[in-house]
Structures are given as C-alpha cells and as structure tokens.
Amino acid sequence: MTTPSAAPQRRSPAGPKAEQRVRDILRVGREVFAERGYERATTTEIAQRLAISEATVFTYFRGKRELCMRVIQDWYDEIIAAIESGLPRQASVREQLEFIVLTHLRLFLIQGTGLCALVLSEGRKDAGHGAGDLGEGFVELQRRYTAPLMELLARGQQAGEVRQDIPLRLLRSLVFGPMEHMLWEAVITGRQLDVEASARDLVALLWPALQAPDEELQRLRRLRAQLHDALSSA
Amino acid sequence: MTTPSAAPQRRSPAGPKAEQRVRDILRVGREVFAERGYERATTTEIAQRLAISEATVFTYFRGKRELCMRVIQDWYDEIIAAIESGLPRQASVREQLEFIVLTHLRLFLIQGTGLCALVLSEGRKDAGHGAGDLGEGFVELQRRYTAPLMELLARGQQAGEVRQDIPLRLLRSLVFGPMEHMLWEAVITGRQLDVEASARDLVALLWPALQAPDEELQRLRRLRAQLHDALSSA
Amino acid sequence: MTTPSAAPQRRSPAGPKAEQRVRDILRVGREVFAERGYERATTTEIAQRLAISEATVFTYFRGKRELCMRVIQDWYDEIIAAIESGLPRQASVREQLEFIVLTHLRLFLIQGTGLCALVLSEGRKDAGHGAGDLGEGFVELQRRYTAPLMELLARGQQAGEVRQDIPLRLLRSLVFGPMEHMLWEAVITGRQLDVEASARDLVALLWPALQAPDEELQRLRRLRAQLHDALSSA
Amino acid sequence: MTTPSAAPQRRSPAGPKAEQRVRDILRVGREVFAERGYERATTTEIAQRLAISEATVFTYFRGKRELCMRVIQDWYDEIIAAIESGLPRQASVREQLEFIVLTHLRLFLIQGTGLCALVLSEGRKDAGHGAGDLGEGFVELQRRYTAPLMELLARGQQAGEVRQDIPLRLLRSLVFGPMEHMLWEAVITGRQLDVEASARDLVALLWPALQAPDEELQRLRRLRAQLHDALSSA
DNA sequence: CATGAATGAGACTTCATTCAT
DNA sequence: AATGAATGAAGTCTCATTCAT
Question: What range does the record give for the signal peptide (chains A, B, C, D) (predicted)?
C-alpha cells in the first residue's frame, strides 16, 4: 500500500516503465535480503536475478542501504494493509486478536522470516549492531505496525475484556514476543509450523493472561500455594 | 612415495600469559561482536582496541568465526552458570521463575543485548540469513541455556502448579518471547528498562497463563470446601 | 520459509573490450606465472604490469587459481595447435618426429620454460607438492598434448619403422624426457640453446633406439664386448 | 656424507647435542619440503613435527631458505655417496650404467620424488621461477651429482663402447631425461613403478642409442673379418 | 535509460622472523 | 640453549559504487 511518501528520491526516474523497474528490484531485493540478511546480500545478486546490470539498480536506488530501507518499508506496508483491511472489527476482541496473530504468523512464514530477521537485526537506529542509519523512519513504521494490536487492546480494556492494570506496552510484548519466539524456533529447528493451530493455541494461552485477574481465583491460588508450602515443610 | 600427510594446524599457545591474552581477546571480542554484529565486526578493530597486532589475534584463534563462536559460548556459559548457581531451588515455582526472568533480563542488559542479537542473527544452522556454519554446537548450547526454565516448568507441572495441557515448548516461548521482545524494544527505542520492575510485572502477567484454565476454579473451590470440612472436624 | 538458494556467482563480462582485457590478463599472467611460479606470482604484480586495478583481474577471473589454469590451458592449446597444424603428415616418420621435437623446443624456449616448470610443478592432482586441485582437467590436457607424438609412434610401429617390443609409454618418456632435461639444463645454466641443432641431434640420437634392434648388429656388439673384456684381462 | 664444508654457519651452536638437533631438523625438514615444496612448507610444521619451538629452528638455521639449501645438499650428498661407493667399477660399462640408473630410480622413489621436484622447481639461480638465490652452490652440486655418469660415459667413449660424435652433455640428457620423465609420470598418475624392471628396460632402450650408428655396423664387420683372419693364421 | 567496465577501500588470513626471558 | 609470544609485511579476494558511452 502507499507508503506515506518519504522524501522524493532524486535518483528515481519517473514514468510507468520506471515504476515497473522499481517494483521488480524491490521484489527481488526483498527475496535476497530475506535470504541473506543485509550484509550478505549483494547488489550483484539482485541484479543477476533480474538479469539486469548492477548499475541499473543504482539508477533507481541511491544505494544498498536505501534499497533495503524501501524493501522493509514495503513489507511493513503489506502487513499493515493486510491486517487493517482484513480485521473483523465486528467480531469479539478475542477473535480479532486471533486474526492478528494468525495473519502475522502467516505473512512471516510465507516469505517473511528472513525479513523478520532483517528487521530485527538491522532495523534500529544505532544501538545494537545494525546497519546504523538504516532505521531512520523505523520507529514510525513500528508504531503503525503494532497499531492495530494496540488499538484492539485499548478497545478491549475499555470494554472491560482486557485487564487495565498493565501498561499496553507490556501487553504488546506479551503477544508479539511469543509469536516471534515461535517463529525463530521454527526457523532454527527447520521444523514446519502449523500456523493455524499455533495461532489458536497461542491465543488460548494468552487470553487468560490478558484478562482481569479474578479476585476469588487469585485468593484461592494463594491459599493452595500456602498449603503446598506448609505441607512440604511439615 | 610422498606421504599424503594431513594439513598442519597452528595451535594457540598455552602459557599463563597466553591465558590472559585469550581472556582479553574474548572480552574485547565480545564487545565488538556485540556492538557490530558478526559481519561488521572486524578483527582489525578488536586488535586495535587491545593495542595489539592483528596477527596476534590469529595466534590465539583460528579465525574470526572461531573467535565469535568462543565469545558466544563464553556468554552462554556465564548465563547458564549464573542461573544454575543462583536459582533458589527451595523457593516456590513462581519465585524461581521470577529469578530466571530477572537474571536473564539483567545479564542481557548489562552487555548482552548485542550478543543476544548476535546469537539470534548468526546462531543458526543455515536457515535464514546467518553466518551459516557458525552454529554447529549451538543446538546444545540452546538446550543447556533453556534447561533451567524447562526443568522448572516440568517440576511445576508435576506439582500441579503449571498447566499440563500445553507442550513445554510453547510455554517456553511464552516466557522467553516477551522477555526478548521487551529487550528489543528497549534497545530499539533506547529507553532505559527497570529490570526488576519489568521482571516482576512480566511474571505477574504470565503466571495466570501458565496455570490451568477453566476447571481450575472448580477444583480450587472443592479444595477449599474440603479444607473447611477438615478444619471443622479437627 | 526462506529458499535455500545457491551461491551467487560473479560472471566475467562478455563484451568486445572485455575479451581484449581477458587476453591482456592472460598474456601478462602467463609472463608472471612463468617467471615466478604459482606461489610467488602475485595478482598484485599482474595488475601492476597491466597498470590496472587488482580488482579488475578478479572481475575477469574467479581467482588466482582459475587464472593460472587458464594460462596453462592457453599455452597447451597453442602447442597443440602448432603441432597439429604444422605436422608434415606426408613426410617420413623420422621427419615428423623431428618436427615435433623442434616445435616443442622452440615453443618452450620462446617463453615457455617457466610455463613448463609451472606445469610440471603445479599441474598434478595432489601427489608431490603442488597447487593440488589446480590440475583437475590436466590429465586430459596432457593426453592431448602428447597425442600427436603417440599417434606418430603408433603409425611408425605399424609401418615397421618403430620397434614394437616396447610400450608406447616408455617410448614417449624416451622422447620427452631428454627434451625436458635439455630445457632444464638450459634454464639452470642460463646457456643459450641452439634449438634447431639440438632437435636434429636429439632425433639423431633417439632414432636408433626407436628402431627394431638389428639382430646381427646385436650379435656383433656382444662379440666386440667379449673381446674387449678378454683383452683387458689378458 | 660430508659436505665440502660450506661457509661456517654463524648461528649454529656447537656440541654433540646441537649436532643431533641439526640432524633432526634436517631430517624432518627434508620430509616437509619433499611433501609440500618450498613455498608450501612452513617452519611451523617442521617445528611441530619435532615437537620443538619454531624459534629453535631459527637457532640452528639462519632461515627457511638456508634450511632448504642444507636439506637439498644433504640429499645430494647421499645420492652421490650411494653411487660413488656402490658403483661396480670392474663391471662392463653397460652394467655400470644400469647400476646408476637403478640407484637413481630407487633413491628418488624411496623419498625422493618430492625432493626431486623441489630441486627441479627451486634449485636454479634466478632463471625460471624459483627460490631465487636458493641455488648458489647448485651448479657445483649438479656437477658432482652427474659426475659418475659423465665419467662413465667418458670411459665408454674411450673404450669405443659409446659413440663419440655426440657431446657428453646431450648423452647425459638422454639418460637422465627419460628417467625423470618416468618418475614424474609415476608421481602424477600415482601408479607404482617396478624400479628394477624399469631400470633394465630403460637401459636396454638407451643402449643402442649410446652406441655409434651407421658405419658402426661396417666397422664391426671389418673387425669380425680381421678376427677370422687372425684366428685362421694363428 | 541502461550498462559495461573499472576500481578504492578494506576484509581476513598466513608466515617467517625476532627478542626478552 | 630453548622458547613463548608477538608482529610486519604481504597476499588473495569482495563489493558497493561511479562514470563514460
């Protein structure tokens, strides 16, 4: 979808054919960056896969870094669009949450694990080890990227379905964190992931944690714990 | 006829001064790899920071890759040791969980976020984009690294304190996932993280999810009733 | 999931100017490898002699080894072509032999002694001490290289002009061996070699050995030897 | 055997233990140089095989080059000694020739192919590609090395058993050339070589070539006729 | 516009050699 | 006498990037 029109690329030629070129390069660039990561991806390989000259890549993009930025932006845009357009806003909060989780897992797995890694590895200002300046407009992208979930959680809180005593930020980590961890695991171990089952399981697991703690339940659990301790020390 | 003969291998010195050198290089290597990631880290920089010749680095380590491996191993060893030695095995499952989470957050933040990224980015077989062969003995390290948590969760399951209807693997993602996500967030945004508060909050948030849902309440109520009866008849 | 994807390979350009470059590099590469041998030849020197950047060399050849391989191949091709095209197939076996010897000596001496050494030193599978893998397609080159002589000898055998009681392999050594030895000697001592005279002499020397041993001659020689012995002991 | 006492090595310590050290290093140095060639041989490997420090090698030899020189010298000395001491000076020229050829083949094959290559590749002044200055006293070594054969051929010429119309130098090439060619072939192809059979065959093949051609037959017949006459009138 | 061609800068790595102990 | 330790110098190779055509 439309990126919020960043600074106009001086290099980019205009015209319909040019736009197709840009799209091609972005498409293949995404592949290569996803497969190899920022450092190991080469402009050479991108050009070769398109059967164009290396120099042509530089006709449309100021450099490797810029291309990578655009690749990541495009990818973000797609995810954001997929979620924003598909979100069943009429359904229950839980169902919407499941949609979000499922969509993420799906998009990540289709071609995204590499890009996910790319973003995680390269996409930050200068802390950690990354492409450095690569992440200039990143905070904003991150914000928009997590916006649907944040809004959903906020709505849930207002409806009393989501606990209000925990900062949203932490709740977000609670949702995205395990998701990414599962993805990494899938990538590392090479095991296939049943996306739908995983999404269902994960939400089932998270749901109780997102809800207001039932006071009676808490008290009872404390009681049980005390008994346990008492027994073991008797 | 000429003997075939294997390739000769340069071995690292073994004296007492040598050990110090190895430690120094590992220390600085850790810094540099953490700051820059595998690809951007250079042996030149490591040597410069130690004010030694680049060749000296290669006297003690066979190559960049091996050095990086050792750096990661050392780091894993530290975390594993810190957790294994400090874990309050007498305390409740929940307290032990809190210890594990807290220790992880702390060690990661002290100097570890970069290393965490390093491991995540480079430490996998060949899937995703990584240093490839770098992660040969990595599966084992990962296993030992997550072992304390896994054992704790298993004990919790046996004691009835942790739900048994979810595979341990998923529970592990539920714990490590948000932790890592929080760390990434801290790194990306550059915001400081109150480690102890975060650990407490996170565990508070996770705890309900780790416990049996639904019928738990029923069982607890039965338990309370039985206690009531027992007490009144005692 | 991320595609496995093969390693990308830089390909050498293919334009008309590129071909000239390739020829230039091969020409100078031949010089340098011939002068210095494989190990002592440096890509730096090759580049410098051409007044081009070292990187340019690697634009056209994957590496030092490949360049060297190509140099040797080209040289072989030249020799093979020179012999195949110039061989006076109508002339007598002896004249053809002289042509082969002469052509070899000439080509070797023009610029070839170094290359001869290069091939002898580096061009073998892994036996002896050599560049090892350098000689992959070498056996074939060797075969083609010695083919004209082999065929000539075979024809000579059929025509009854060359003795048939000795394996061709040994006859080949008998021809090439002294030739190479003479060349080495010329190189080592630095003495000039009168190529044509040497070729003539050598063939004159070899020719009797290549022919069927005349029985009477043999018997007479034995007689003379016996006389000699008898005289000296009398 | 005793080298004609070259310039005294400043570095070499004296004493019986030192002499043993020198012998050890020369022994292992010979192995390594033979296996790897000059460039690929490393002082590291030589030291490692002896389980001594690399620095120790430099205590006894001024450098890699000098060590290599000494290795080659020693080897020459051995061959020269073997031939000079074993040569059956009473036997016929042909038998002596066979002894020389056989001894060469044998010594070369035992451990010498590598060294042979070393000498051929590295042992020349500066022509060809070699260790350059490595061959300072080489011409002399070469002379002594080929001396037995040269003398034998000269004696043969005087006795009328070896043709006199060809310079000795060329005859030498005729003997050593095929020998070395056969050895190379054996090394390259890895095929085993039946040393004794090869020596016999080769000499059988060479012998006619070493003898006078053409009119020889005439002379021999005259000789036979004269003998006939002499006998009948005696 | 596309590209063929070239390259500067820099990476990792090897090894003979030195020197204080 | 022996060596542990260190290193200068050099080599091969990679890649993003530029520029004339």
Answer: none
